[in-house]
UniProtKB/TrEMBL annotation:
Keyword Hydrolase: no
UniProt source species: Peribacillus deserti
Protein name: NitT/TauT family transport system ATP-binding protein
Keywords for this protein: ATP-binding, Nucleotide-binding, Transport
Superkingdom of the source species: Bacteria
Length: 256
């Protein structure tokens, strides 16, 4: 049984004057510990599907199962969501921000707090606990957001273009950091991105989406020799350039 099963998901947005089908007949099985990227043109429904997987949006039809159960029936939060913006509370310290989810979920205890502070140290932010978000760079704030997300120990992490607002050097560093962190914790992750290179460097499998309505056009497996490298190292591997050209041509075909 797959860890995450997306079964025949379709979704239509209705207004008073029109109806727009964003997704049509999406089915996908995702194994635990895998890293999947959703890649495709703007408006193809990638973020809509991410919202449905998270349980924030109910689909027009179909269902999402996590460990064989509908996501709405989960006894405790199973999913962490990391967005393009860090959404840290500016009036709270870094310590207060990273512990917020634990307090909301009534999981704040000595063990969980120590684990969270240890993770903050591991990603290079020890000593920032009493600072405020305005005192940190964009990349540092995204690292804080990652700690806050992982503190609640979600089984599935949803990443909606989390690096797109950062400069390229910071983006590359965070790709490595996030990839290493998720692998060390054995997390399952889904990344929504417009960046072909990012999808190749970070993923096990790339799902290419077509639009009008959004559908999975093709699944592309990333070669094992790339998956065993850090994202930064993967970008320098000969297989990376070859796969980049393959994905690029597939996306061009979608636009014709």
């Amino acid at each position: 049984m797959s860890f995450l099963r997306i079964q025949n998901i379709s979704h239509t947005y209705f207004t008073k004057k029109s109806a727009k089908t964003a997704l049509s007949s999406i089915s996908l099985d995702i194994e635990e510990g895998s890293f999947i990227s959703f890649l495709g043109p703007s408006g193809c429904g990638k973020t809509t599907l991410l919202s449905i997987i998270s349980g924030l949006l109910n689909p027009s039809s179909g269902q999402v199962l996590v460990e064989g159960r509908p996501i709405q029936e989960a006894e405790e939060p199973l999913i962490g969501y990391m967005l393009q913006q860090d959404y840290l509370f500016p009036w709270k310290t870094i310590e207060e921000n990273i512990l917020l989810g634990l307090r909301i979920l009534n999981k704040s205890n000595e063990i969980s707090r120590k684990k969270t502070f240890r993770l903050l140290k591991e990603i290079g932010l020890e000593g920032t606990e009493n600072q405020y978000p305005k005192q940190l760079s964009g990349g540092m704030k995204q690292r804080v957001a990652l700690v806050r997300t992982l503190a609640a120990d979600p089984k599935l992490l949803l990443l909606d273009e989390p690096f797109s607002a950062l400069d390229f050097q910071t983006k590359l560093r965070l790709e490595d950091l996030v990839s290493a962190t998720l692998k060390s914790f054995g997390k399952t992750a889904i990344l929504v991105t417009h960046d072909i290179g990012e999808a190749i460097a970070m993923s096990d499998t790339i799902c290419l989406f077509s639009s009008n309505p959004g559908q999975i056009y093709k699944q592309i497996s990333v070669p094992e020799q790339l998956r065993n490298l850090t994202p930064f190292e993967a970008r320098a591997h000969p297989e990376y350039a070859s796969l980049f050209q393959t994905v690029w041509k597939e996306l061009e075909n979608l636009e014709k």
